[in-house]
Write a structure and sequence with these properties.
The chain is α/β, with parallel strands linked by helices. It has a domain of 196 residues: NAD(P)-binding Rossmann-like Domain (Rossmann fold, 3-Layer(aba) Sandwich), CATH 3.40.50.720. The protein is built from nine helices and twelve strands. It is globular and about 55 Å long.
Length: 281
Amino acid sequence: MTTALVFGGRTGLLGQALMRVLSRAGWQAIPIGRGDVDLLNLEALHQLVAQTQPQVIVNAIAYTAVDRAEDEPQEAWRINTLFPRLLGRAAGDAHLLHVSTDYVFDGRATRPYLPTDPVNPQSVYGRTKLEGEQELLRLGLPRLTIVRTAWLFGPGRTNFITRILELAQQRPVLTVVHDQVGSPTFTQDLAAALLALAKVRAFGLFHAVNAGQASWCELAEEAVRLAGLPTVVQPISSKDYPQRAKRPAYSVLDTAALTAATGITPRSWAIALREYLRSLR
Ligand SMILES: NC(=O)c1ccc[n+]([C@@H]2O[C@H](COP(=O)([O-])OP(=O)(O)OC[C@H]3O[C@@H](n4cnc5c(N)ncnc54)[C@H](OP(=O)(O)O)[C@@H]3O)[C@@H](O)[C@H]2O)c1
């Protein structure tokens, strides 16, 4: 039986999906969260790996508060950069799959981003996540997979869709930004892609997202429509919705490398969203 350590598996949006998908595949998935290990203590990480002997380690822990990171760059750096480096050093022979973000890009592309495209993060979150990738690459690990993803929704934790549906139940009109376009992604589909990458032992850099693209406004509109709510969703410009951190205007990710390695062709985000909302009912 394959044993996997799932960092973020107790409470994380993706981590919880990974726990379900890996367990269903017959793996022994061990969730690691706050209280299980001191993330910044290399010796403790070494001990955890020695005790559990995982063949696979997935890092779905991150400092994901994109706006707050602008005010807490040190804390974001510790979790998004320093911790991955320490985990990489402690991983031993295990296959380490590390999850990263579309926010490593600046959003000026005119076609979906390839894993090899130049990066240029615009926020503390994006910068610290990119540095996490770079630290891991610098270690020269023989079994390392970095998977960038984007715009996650799924069960188990508040996310953009749950927030929109909550607001839609309270208000007749919602205004949502339309000039940021990305790849909405169901955590269950991402977890399945990570499992597939682990199974075929695909090392390197990949993008894993659902197919298609949407603006936040289009995503909200579709969620409200599928939920059968009468709320009107109106587009607004990012200028009229100031946020602390700068986000890329366009961060659609190209998944051809994932398909080539695993045979998985991601389904569209709209179909995945329908399945997610059905499960909420
Ligand atoms: N969510 C998105 O839209 C999105 C988009 C692109 C990329 N990603 C990437 O996808 C991965 C998973 O994201 P997610 O949305 O699942 O994140 P999430 O729901 O915010 O979960 C993050 C996990 O990290 C844990 N964590 C954070 N700080 C910690 C600390 N100091 N000590 C111990 N645990 C800590 C959290 O534990 P607590 O619950 O105890 O805080 C939680 O389990 C991340 O690498 C993220 O950068 C996410």
